Amino acid sequence: MFLNAQPTIVCVVALALALACARVETTPSENGGGAPATAAAVEAGDAFVISADDQSDAALAVTRRMDAEGRAGGGELPRLSAQEHMRRAAVYHGNRAFEEARAHWRAVIERHPSDANVPAAHFGIGRSLFQERRYEEALPVFQKLGEAYAQTAGGRDGFYYVAATLLRMDRPGEAAARYAEYAERFPDGERVENAYLNVIDSLREAGRPDEALPWIARARARFPGTPTDTNALFARLRLEISRSEWAAAVRTAEELGRARFPREVNTNATEVAYLRAYALERGGQKERAVGAYQSIADGVGSYFGARATARLRKMGGREKTAAEAREARVLAEARRSAASYPAPNRESLLRATANRGVDPRFMLAITRQESGFRADAKSPAGARGLMQLVPDVAAKYAQAAGITNLREDDLYQPDVNIRLASVYLGELFRMFPGLPEAAAASYNGGEDSVARWVRRSVHDDPGIFTAEVGFTETKDYVHKVMANYRAYQLLYTEDLKPRR
């Protein structure tokens, strides 16, 4: 994956250390509010504090040197305490050196079979395989964990991850059954609220939307007045839109519009207002739809404001004139804030994107969000450089980018970073033609998840697609990247020259 830079942070982790710092794209909680589990850390072994320094390039180099020195002539890993194996595994995992991390987790399992860290070590192995999309290998690890350690939080996480893995393997019916089983077996489990919500979308993906409806009702009855209640109502709105049940969608959107939207809810008032306007339009209530679209304020930073303006323009006539007035105000705002949208590395961007079907302004939009144009940026999950490439994914595209003998430190070189990212983005635009929102979502949340969200969205409207984005962080990311992209399109030509 490509991960965006974060401020320096400290993570308290004992579930394979840096798992709490892992990005949302590998978290199976797809309905907002689902953070990677850390409770298993405390139950599985002694918690300890890992700072950003421990996830630095220097920490990685030191850990590799210690392992090399401890190996007898290149033999097995040195014999260490379970805690020290876990610490070193976390340093590797935090830098996405997955195989080296797994070697230490395996050492815990084999050398310290009675240690409290064993469930966390199993989970670390499964989770790292999951992150590499090696789902066939991850599945039995999670199955064993869920069967052998169901009495622990780590074991319950393994049980839950079986469903998430099945979903990534395009087996949504089986995933729905597993999520349902989790909800029934662990009514007070750490992920029970997400289990209810994920049953709903898994059944939709399995082509069984009628079976999803009772789960919406169950979730709302089981968690009334909570973010899960609101998320379930949002799931009903998305389902109704996917089935073109426009009158029902308008009613649900109006009910949802009266809700509160804390961070744990995977939507917001502006998105709900857009979905209501869209349902009104598609349901033949043009005048009400126009008023609803016009009520969504447009501006440089407003994704749904831009979408509402686009819908008004598409209607033609007076609505098109209104859209043009909105666009003129946004252009004036963009020009006033032009200094916030620089275009560095112009020559590298133009070379890298030539003949790849990638707009260099989209590259700038992502770079602005990922690193703020800092070539030396590094995230807690091991992403490096301008466009926050992680080593394992960068290596996948190195040959196509014409780069040989790629090293981790090379990702801090702007030209190398840009070339690799352009290859990946070119692939994403081929996968999701005409939908830059899907390319942005893939860059943050993984293209396998995005392919599912595209199928769920049904309708050919980018705002409907973004409503289906199941990771709150990824949805926010898409909104910001697309707002950046709009500003760059207003301010620069395709060859990155400032517009007059």
Question: What do these coordinates show?
Answer:
By secondary structure, the chain is an all-alpha fold. Among the domains are: 1-139, no CATH class; 293-298 and 301-336, no CATH class; 340-491, Lysozyme (Orthogonal Bundle). It is 62% helix and 2% strand. It contains 24 helices and two strands. It has helices at residues 39-44, 57-70, 82-94, 98-111, 118-131, 135-148, 153-168, 172-185, 192-205, 209-222, 227-242, 246-256, 269-282, 286-294, 303-315, 317-336, 346-353, 360-370, 391-397, 414-431, 436-445, 447-457, 462-468, 472-491; strands at 10-13, 48-51. Strands 1-2 form a two-stranded antiparallel sheet. Helix 8 (172-185) packs antiparallel against helix 9 (192-205). The longest helix is centred in the middle third of the chain and has 20 residues, at 317-336. Residues 1-49 have low confidence and may be disordered.
Describe this protein with a few key phrases:
Lysozyme, 500 residues
